[in-house]
UniProtKB/TrEMBL annotation:
This is Extracellular ligand-binding receptor. It comes from Acidovorax delafieldii 2AN. The keyword Transport applies. Residues 21-359 form the Leucine-binding protein domain. Pfam families: Peripla_BP_6. InterPro entries: BCAA_transport, Leu-bd, Leu_Ile_Val-bd, Peripla_BP_I. GO terms for biological process: amino acid transport. Belongs to the leucine-binding protein family. It comes from the Bacteria. The keyword Signal applies. Residues 1-17 form the signal peptide. Keywords: Amino-acid transport, Receptor, Signal, Transport.
Amino acid sequence: MKALFTAALLCAGSAFAQDTFKIAYIDPLSGPFANVGELMLTHTQYAVEDINAKGGVLKGTKLQLLQFDSKLSAQESQSALQAAIDQGARAIVTGGSGSSVVTALVQAAARHNQRNPGKEILVLNHSSIDPELTGKACNFWHFQFEANTAMKMKAIANYVKKQPDIKKVYLLNQDYAHGKQWAHYGRELVGLARPDVQFVGEALHPIGRVKDFAPYLAKVKSSEADSLITGNWGQDMVLLLKAAGDAGYNLRYFNHSAGSIPGTVLAVSQAKLGQLTWVAEWHPGQAETPKVDALAKAYKARTGKDFLAPRIEMTPRFLAAAINKAQSTDPVKIARALEDLTLDSVVGPVRMRGEDHQLLLPQVVNTIAPVDGKLVKTGWEGTNYGFRTDAAYTGNELAQGTECKMARP
């Protein structure tokens, strides 16, 4: 009788252990980019809570979100990864720490998975846009939920092609993999679209450490550039805009995600000069996006914060859909279910390309501009500046070829 009771307890414990599927969030929650990490965390939390409120996955299994601070460090992120694994996480949500950190996480996860069959972990990347992650360095355990650098720059190049007033371009970027790639693809793709454009200078600066961009802007000004291709984000973008405003320098900026990061619109409004054009799957105030509008309203009601990034909120939903498709919480089966999975998202149908694990989602080129009641109807961040749609492209229009040769388990 005692043995039967013990066995029943063991079975109950096993069943209870499967009542949750643990996801670890690893992104900056301290330091100069903490506001970016908090934004991404809130988007992730909202989706997880909504999925759980609707029954979770597999008819009752709830998602549990663990939180870890990457401190924008590859070493700290790998320590967080090990802590997450020790706590039972089977998927990592990351991307806001930069491509070098995400690459280190992917490599660490792959090593762990090779050494620990049956205890694998997935890496779901919502914001690090290094094309190598779905190219030469592609990995079965990694999934990219954001358009990569080449896709975003192609959208910008298509737009610049129709802007004859852009004549001289300077490349100013953060000194790490992403910054160098934004410069590389800017020179290559904008150069192809506009062979007449002159690239008049290029510089790299330490990420998150420059307090005053005036010396960099002095070099830009001496080059007589009218436009700046910059992959800066977070405080590095805000401080760059401030320095340009203080110097009275009326530049055009071409960026990947600046408008979706808190403080950027405010910085543009305070500078009163310059046009910041960026590209994302959606922007606030975009016309004819009823699904996103409804989500943004519900998000604001629950969190008290502005909704900015559908792809981040979408990432846990893809995971949930794959778990239900696979009818399993085994990461190997989930990964296979994610391949070529199409989700009817708030920005329309999006597909996770199976050959390289690159999500194909639309991209909208838009500019932060003053409210005019026509193209820009709503102000943002308490300012009279909002977002003007300039051009829109489907994921298939921007899709790039891939050098991925993926080894599968």
